């Protein structure tokens, strides 16, 4: 199953920028490692914001939940990370569904 995940990272006044960058460095290593295995299909950093967008491919929602719990950034500062998850449908499958419905009478 494909999911789009938006991570928005905040930090409080007690954390210096270098502390945030240190945690983000650990997270980058984990994310790029997951990308090399194929679990993470792609990653983007939103310019000018503390936001990362990921497309991941996992078997179940449970597996995704477990992965999210284990991320370095979630373990170290999860209370400052907002995560928004949306499941994705392949566009080809959607297009085929639309084609099969064209001309069909409404129920």
Automatic annotation (TrEMBL):
One of its GO terms (molecular function) is isomerase activity. Residues 1-92 form the Muconolactone isomerase domain. SUPFAM superfamilies: Dimeric alpha+beta barrel (SSF54909). The keyword Isomerase applies. The keyword Mitochondrion does not apply. Keywords: Isomerase. InterPro entries: Dimeric_a/b-barrel, MLI_dom. It comes from the Bacteria. This is Muconolactone D-isomerase. It comes from Cognatiyoonia sediminum.
